Amino acid sequence: MATAGVASRRKSEELILEGKVKVNGIVVRELGFKVSEKDIVEVEGKVINKDIKHVYYLLNKPIGYVTTVKDPQGRKTVMELVPKDKRVFPVGRLDIMTDGLLLLTDDGQLAYQLTHPKYLVEKEYHVKVKGKVGLDQIEKLQNGIMLEDGLTAPAKAVILKEDKGETLISLTIHEGRNRQVRRMMDAIGKKVLKLTRVRYGHLTLAGVPVGKYRLLTKKEVEKFKNSVTHLSKILDKKQ
Description:
Layout (H helix, E strand, L loop, with lengths): L8 H9 L3 E3 L2 E2 L13 E3 L2 E2 L8 E6 L27 E2 L8 E7 L2 H8 L7 E8 L4 H9 L2 E2 L2 E2 L4 E8 L2 E8 L6 H8 L4 E9 L2 E2 L8 E3 L2 H21 L1
Parallel strand pairs: 7-13
Antiparallel strand pairs: 1-2, 1-3, 3-4, 5-7, 5-15, 6-7, 8-12, 8-13, 9-10, 11-12, 13-14
């Protein structure tokens, strides 16, 4: 269902548990139920088109937009910045005051793999903080920071620039916890002045102005799929 773009992996699981999915006319409530190309899958009475072609957008998200499909508070959402004729959803989140690279797609399977920590997809941020950052603080980021929801995985942290009482840091992580980068900076006593995601895996913001988007190329999509498939095989062998 996620692969066919019906919904995200989590939402697909909810639909199954609610009894809204049928395979060959029979309601299926078992998560992970296997289907073949010959099976007819219905979701809420509609047959899934298994041959659907997915779309993948790379958006340079501006500050002031929330990363959600709908916002009950009536704030501007990232969905206003991409075509409305496609049923896409954001891959992970950037908070309202964070700008930069955001992926949107209708490919639920790939979205799940890109956001799950076990697939080790890197996300690089440029973080401007107030004051100087010591090497001991950089080392803490590199070793992992203890947050209220547990120890973060080791990060790549490099000081890019120091100027006028401010420091610009490159921070690369592969997790996607809520407001993780901001919380990591809080943990080392640094206030974030500006936060921008500049890279997601092999993708960068090159050529995409703030507030604009572009379609991913077939080669870019295949590179993501090949990398997660390769890692899946390695993880399966370890189990």
